[in-house]
Amino acid sequence: MPLLKDPPQVPPPSWIRPPPEQHHAPAHDWQTAVPDTSLFPPPPALFSGFDASPANNATAEEAEAGEAWCARYPLLPPAALPAAALAALRAHDIAPVPPAGFPGRATQLRPGRWSVRTGPGTRDACILGYPPLYSAREHAGAPRTVYYEVRVRAGSSANVALGFAALPYPSFRLPGWHRGSLAVHGDDGHRYVNDRWGGRAFTRPFAAGATYGVGVVLGAGGAGSVFFTRDGRREGGWDMHEETDAERDLGVFGLEGRHDLSCAIGCFEDVDLEVVFDPAGWMYALKE
């Protein structure tokens, strides 16, 4: 007799296979994990430099001549200032020294205050102050702020640049264009730090009748910053060691407190200025 086989294990017609077991990862609310990016600081202006100024530009040949001059005359070590220069520095009796062949005039009105005038056709020139406002031998190792103001008189053009320069500096170039120098240029409102192109957008162009000031703050360790004033009020500034574009920016060597720094006033065409080194005559109340 044949053996009976077990009946096939077939589910009844009404049976429905249950869905396969699913393993869900725990849900994450990613929006709560991401911080509000509007609170992040803005990115550095790495590519905010201009290839040329929107106002006035020197020629490529003049820029190359300035670079060649700087290569021929490297920055000097800190000078040992004579007693008379140290006394003048402490009394804020700084003298703007025009370059040889300067077609304008620099006239002392009283100690710490000067008049500088040029006429139409004046080419780019840089007037350096003596003694230097920052003496590395005298001031290094302690926090130091150097500052001065310039009033652009009524009827003057805005073709002026206010800044600082380590020595020597080419007298036929505006400050801020070459090594060891920085400046805010009045014709375009741009700031220049060792930048012979178009600088960086910074402030409004200068206007006749207004007073402008520029200062450098040097820490005991050499870190520094720059600030700018208009009619006695701060109107911006920047960190000397801000993030920069490695392919464009050429560094701040000479501006970090290891070299003497002189006031550097650039001008071209017709300008009529009053330069004030005496703090008693400043519109801005400097607090060191």
UniProtKB/TrEMBL annotation:
This is Protein ssh4. It comes from Escovopsis weberi. Residues 8-19 have a biased composition (Pro residues). The keyword Membrane applies. Residues 146-233 form the SPRY domain. Residues 1-28 are annotated as: Disordered. One of its GO terms (cellular component) is membrane. The keyword Membrane applies. InterPro entries: B30.2/SPRY_sf, SPRY_dom, SPRY_Ssh4-like. Keywords: Membrane, Transmembrane, Transmembrane helix. It holds the Pfam family SPRY. It comes from the Eukaryota. It is found in: Membrane.
